[in-house]
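The aim of this short unit is practical: by the end, you should be able to scan a pair of folded records and say something sensible about each. We start with the first protein, listed as its amino acid sequence and then its structure tokens.
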Amino acid sequence: MKTITTALVAGAMLSLAVRAADAREWRGWNIHPPEYPVSTGMEYFAEEVGKRSNGELEAKVFHSGVLGDQPDAIEQVREGALDWAVFNFGPIGAVSPEANIASLPFIFNSVDSMFELMEGPVGEEIADGVRAIGLEPLGYFDSGARSFYHRERIIETPADLDGQKFRVMGNQLYVDMVNSLGGNATPMPYADVFQALSTGVIDGAENNYPSFESSGHYEAAKFYSNSQHLILPECLCMNKDLYDSLSPEQQALVKEVGAEAALLQREEWAKREESSKAKVLAAGVQIVEIEDKTPFQEMMQPVYDKFLEDNPQLSDLIDRVREAQQ
């Protein structure tokens, strides 16, 4: 009887330990400050997952890149050292060829067409490529359109980039894009860009209005040229092994809340985009609309050719992305 009692106690303790391990707080990585639209969406996700699971699932957001830079964080979520995050498709594309399709310059006609494709059959094929590297997509956030900005000059034609050093995210496609336009691409962590702009280590960079404003880059770069060369989604995603360990009901819950968080973030993004543009204009930034992007687009063919040479299996998927927008 004593042996049985001991075994029952041990089993109960093991069960409690397993439940405690299952109930650990999921650590979420975020590069942006707490007031940013991405942060709002992530906080919504963390709060609603905890509330709707009655505390069985708990998540916390660590803002402002305190858990590391984006490429490192991607690896940590893939390996399970971190649990969830919002990542730009640019750095994800560096390790997922399917995701890299979104990083092809001018591949999307507009933000609306990008979301329509990402949330349809084409997007599901891209999502499978993200799952293959250990990340489970839960929703797609808006990061607007990325454009060039410069310390000292307006960018109106490709010739204006000639010989200029531009910071890009760590993805070979962006290096090829800037180099094809005659510039010198300089991959660099996001946190280092302000100092590099201020000291002239780089001549310019490229990003969207909210990031251009929230990072303070507009204080050092007073010329913003609306090239909109990249329209990239951001992925609210979690470690795939962690996702696979959830019950079907829990998986459905995180997917539902992820989709809601994405819609909330997009609403907040639209507001922030307008306020950020107004703020940089008030600070003296000169914004130039590039009405005819054809000269830039024509110089992107080598970028596409090189990508397809390395990833011939994705030719059909790229064709379908283009055809869907005609």
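Turning to the second protein, read its sequence before its tokens, just as you did above.
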Amino acid sequence: MSVIEMKSIKREYRMETKKSRKKQSEAIIVRALRGLDFSAEQGEFVSVMGPSGSGKSTLMNILGCLDKPTSGTYALDGIETSSSNANTFAFIRNRKIGFVFQSFNLLARTTALENVELPLFYRQKDKKDMKQKSNLSRKERAMAALKEVGLENRMDHYPSQLSGGQQQRVAIARAMVNDPAFILADEPTGNLDTGMTLEIMGLFQQLNDRGKTIVMVTHEPELAAYTKRIITLRDGSLVSDTLVENRGNALADLAKWKNDHALLAEDL
């Protein structure tokens, strides 16, 4: 079953410039995406790569229903999004997509548990939907999500009391709490050191092994090696789509990294 089905996606931006002498405006068309085809099945772990200006951010915005394509179709979990209005877009973002960002985007004066509960507030009005989705209360669902990412003992902690890796785990729990069709991660380890990066990639691999669909935007090949499939963009076009052979094991690499650093500390 396709969670994501994109066909002939184009995104063009019209930029107005003024001529210096006649002071007349003329339009420059920037083609950020040029007829891109992309699909992802349930349970895939896909990384999106490409140099600066390749169209990664534009693709991420369309995948996340933060922007619409100029032309083409994008079906997300069976919902055609290309002609959706603002209300439908808001519904899709809340119910179908779990966002994980580089900067965590946690509320500073709110506990880990309350941060994870936040997406559920937007579903309170739809009582029928909530009843069908789960018999658990909002708090119970948030607690279950935090337990799934290994933070059952940090629920009452504020972001300032958590490490960077723990903050990103809270963000991942928040992304999962609505049981979205897929998780969209934008450079999710960009603010983390090597150990925490391996920790988060290991968590993503565990979640994916349990059936979660993940699309991750990254510019680091060593991180893409932990995913199952890599698509590469250049100049707004998809230039390669390859399966990852000899996929890395992030938790095994984390254990080795910790061991190496323990030995280094002993030498010092």
